[in-house]
């Protein structure tokens, strides 16, 4: 049955995000706001649907990271069934999530951020894209594209489709790859490893030449939140919640993800549709925390694979412990690609993957289920309440971009204070503000497609409300 | 070499799915030598598939207010219209050319779209546009076939 829900205000293609920078009476940056003007309303849209359908529906929230929603939703379904899924199913889900991390991080670094980093923030904007990078360094650009392709091919191998694979289901997964398919991925791993190690080498060299960006791109104390394993090791699919402060102190650990409300609360602001989660014990907005690759590397004790642990050690050495600059998100992304490739190699060799037992069968055994996994951009929560027939009564989704909302606002303000001068916004400042947001790799453009790019409007507002300047990119 | 038809849009946002609905209808026709893809967004992994195509047609919802189905020839574009997460047809063609050495002749069929609220149904205007778009593709691929058969 077709459902048609009208939600006001109905926004459309334009204006997915805009940033306003507010000046004080002396013309200094007082605050900056990252407005998200697109309202998806998926939580309401899902009410009344069978929870069995939720992985397929929620995977359609986004054309870029459907796997993350698929897995979190399937896990919420596992909880409603009250089952422990077969070992092969868990390992295959992990494999898909690792493929997702590879493809998403490769896209973020090579397609979106490398043009800024390698061609320069002040370079010609018309060429500051993947094509400019292709002209400047075709080998690196092609290698980056192939790296992303590998992640996509792992997803396609498992799900039968690169996007929206209705493959993970409550209780397990639908199918396993053949030995030949797995071998096809294994033989591509050495090239992928070489690509990411080369990118890491280049990025580390940039840290010395981009000291100003490291200092000004979201460099402030905050909490960091994510999943860890039982011994605090890096985790991407399961585990429990850990919160670490910027001094490295663990302030919450091994929190059952189904009790996320004990530590996470959500605030709303009238100027944005994106919720503002915060660490409940510290209140709003003092409980600001960051999630995603930087947070995962800041909270874990170790990654658990040889090459990635060596890189993690070096990153911590360079940062002097916990990395507080969001510029390090790029660094963390590359290390996580390396970690994912190492874990993929181990998983593809695991004999459990040959098991025909892929799915636990059950009915509704609980009326509430929480599914949590680490999406490439950060911790993703799916929380469903169902009736006795398994029909969805209530849905709460906390997406990674939402977790980082407070930190993104703080980042913009910091960059604006550093790079915006007077009552005009120069192109270099606009690009740096955008790059500051891009460090978090927010996924905002996934509601309707036709924007083509993430349109970004940057407005400079005087203390009396007068708009001094407005520029647009995208 | 085949013809590639790519319909794209969000199938949970009303008319935004017009291109995908048209693509699904074309797929059901089983046209010879035609590959049809229905996707959420234009992403970089479509570039290698495009590079192997003889010709390509993109099907998209058009929110410009235009009341008729429009067909425009698409040129590869490298001028900053590529944001990585989502590409335009022109940027995707440029990516195919840059990475894989070639891009096909390509056209964009824009389908009038007016209603983008949450839901999986099309407005009457978009439904009419979809039917026209399917017809247009059928004629385009048929005439291209005749032209290639006539060549020595």
The CATH topology of one domain in chain A is Cytochrome-c3 Hydrogenase, chain B
Count of runs of 4 or more consecutive helical residues of chain A: 15
Element order, helices and strands of chain A? EEHHHHHHEEHHHEEEEEEHHHEEEHHHEE
CATH topology of chain B: Rossmann fold
Radius of gyration of chain A, in Å, reads 22 Å
Could you estimate the helical fraction of the residues of chain B in percent? 25-40%
CATH class of chain B: Alpha Beta
Overall mean pLDDT score of chain A? Answer: 86
Biggest interface pair, counts = A-B, 53 and 40 residues
What is the quaternary state of this protein? heterodimer
- Provide the residue-averaged pLDDT of chain B: 87
DSSP E strands of chain B, number: 5
Gyration radius over CA of chain B: 15 Å
CATH homolog superfamily of one domain in chain A: Cytochrome-c3 Hydrogenase, chain B
Main beta-sheet annotation of chain A: 4 strands, mixed
Strand order of the largest sheet of chain B: 2-1-3-5-4
Q: What is the approximate shape of chain A?
A: globular
Q: What fraction strand of chain A?
A: 15-25%
Number of strands of chain A: 15
What does this structure look like?
The radius of gyration of chain A is 22 Å and the shape is globular. The longest helix of chain A has 33 residues, at 87-119. Residues 1-15 and 445-454 of chain A have low confidence and may be disordered. Chain A has 474 residues and is α+β, with helices and mostly antiparallel strands. In chain A, a hairpin with an 8-residue loop joins strand 8 and strand 9 (276-279). In chain A, 41% of the residues lie in helices and 18% in strands. In chain A, helix 4 packs antiparallel against helix 12, helix 6 packs across helix 8 and helix 14 runs antiparallel to helix 15. Chain B has one domain (2-150): HybD-like (Rossmann fold). Helices cover 37% and strands 24% of the residues of chain B. Chain B has helices spanning 18-29, 47-51, 89-100, 124-150; strands at residues 2-8, 34-39, 53-62, 70-74, 105-112. A five-stranded mixed beta sheet of chain B has the order 2-1-3-5-4. The model of chain B has no long low-confidence stretch (mean pLDDT 87). Chains A and B meet through helix 4, helix 5 and helix 6 of A and helix 3 of B.
């Amino acid at each position: 049955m077709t459902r048609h829900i009208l939600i006001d205000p109905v926004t459309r293609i334009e204006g997915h995000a805009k940033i306003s920078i507010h000046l004080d009476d002396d013309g200094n940056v007082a605050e900056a706001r990252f407005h998200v003007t697109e309202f998806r309303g998926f939580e309401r849209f899902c009410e009344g649907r069978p929870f069995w359908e939720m992985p397929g529906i929620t995977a359609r929230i986004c054309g870029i990271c459907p796997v993350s929603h698929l897995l979190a939703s399937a896990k919420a379904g596992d909880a409603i069934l009250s089952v422990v899924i077969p070992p092969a199913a868990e390992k295959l889900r992990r494999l898909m999530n690792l493929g997702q991390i590879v493809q998403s991080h490769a896209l973020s670094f090579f397609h979106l951020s490398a043009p800024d980093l390698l061609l320069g923030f002040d370079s010609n904007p018309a060429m500051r894209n993947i094509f400019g990078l292709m002209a400047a360094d075709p080998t690196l650009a092609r290698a980056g594209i192939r790296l992303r392709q590998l992640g996509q091919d792992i997803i396609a191998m498992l799900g039968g489709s690169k996007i929206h694979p209705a493959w993970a289901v409550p209780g397990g997964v639908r199918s396993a790859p053949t030995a030949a398919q797995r071998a096809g991925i294994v033989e591509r791993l050495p090239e992928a490893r070489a690509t990411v190690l080369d990118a890491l080498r280049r990025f580390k060299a940039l840290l010395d030449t981009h000291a100003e960006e490291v200092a000004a791109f979201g460099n402030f104390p905050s909490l960091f939140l994510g999943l860890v394993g039982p011994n605090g090791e890096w985790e991407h699919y399961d585990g429990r919640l850990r919160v670490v402060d910027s001094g490295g102190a663990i302030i919450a650990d091994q929190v059952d993800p189904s009790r996320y409300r004990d530590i996470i609360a959500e605030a709303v602001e009238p100027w944005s549709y994106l919720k503002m989660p915060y660490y409940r014990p510290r209140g709003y907005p003092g409980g600001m925390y960051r999630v995603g690759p930087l947070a995962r590397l800041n909270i874990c004790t170790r990654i658990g694979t040889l090459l990635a642990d060596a890189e993690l050690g070096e990153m911590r050495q360079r940062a002097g412990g916990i990395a507080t600059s969001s510029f390090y998100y790029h660094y963390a992304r590359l290390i996580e690609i390396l970690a994912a490739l190492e874990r993929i190699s181990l998983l593809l060799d695991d004999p459990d993957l040959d098991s025909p037992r892929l799915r636990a069968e059950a009915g509704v055994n609980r009326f509430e289920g929480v599914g949590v996994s680490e999406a490439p951009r950060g911790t993703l929560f799916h929380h469903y309440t169902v009736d006795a027939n398994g029909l969805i009564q209530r849905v709460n989704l906390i997406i990674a971009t939402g977790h980082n909302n407070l930190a993104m606002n703080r980042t913009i303000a910091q960059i604006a204070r550093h790079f915006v001068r007077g009552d005009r916004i120069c192109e270099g400042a606009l690009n740096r503000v955008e790059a500051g947001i891009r460090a978090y790799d927010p996924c905002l453009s996934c509601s309707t497609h036709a924007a083509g790019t993430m349109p970004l409007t940057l407005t400079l507002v005087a203390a009396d409300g007068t708009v001094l300047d407005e520029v647009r990119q995208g | 070499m085949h013809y590639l038809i790519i319909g794209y849009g969000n199938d949970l946002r009303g008319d935004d799915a017009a291109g995908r609905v048209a693509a699904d209808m074309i797929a059901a026709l089983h046209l010879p030598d035609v590959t049809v893809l229905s996707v959420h967004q234009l992403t970089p992994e479509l570039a290698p598939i495009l590079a192997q195509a003889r010709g390509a047609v993109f099907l998209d919802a058009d929110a410009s207010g235009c009341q008729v189905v429009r067909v425009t020839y698409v040129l590869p574009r490298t001028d900053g219209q590529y944001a990585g997460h989502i590409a335009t047809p022109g940027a995707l063609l440029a990516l195919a050319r840059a990475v894989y050495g070639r891009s096909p002749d390509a056209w964009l069929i824009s389908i009038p779209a007016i209603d983008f609220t949450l839901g999986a149904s099309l407005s009457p205007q978009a439904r009419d546009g979809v039917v026209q778009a399917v017809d247009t593709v059928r004629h385009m691929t048929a005439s291209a076939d005749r032209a290639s058969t006539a060549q020595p």
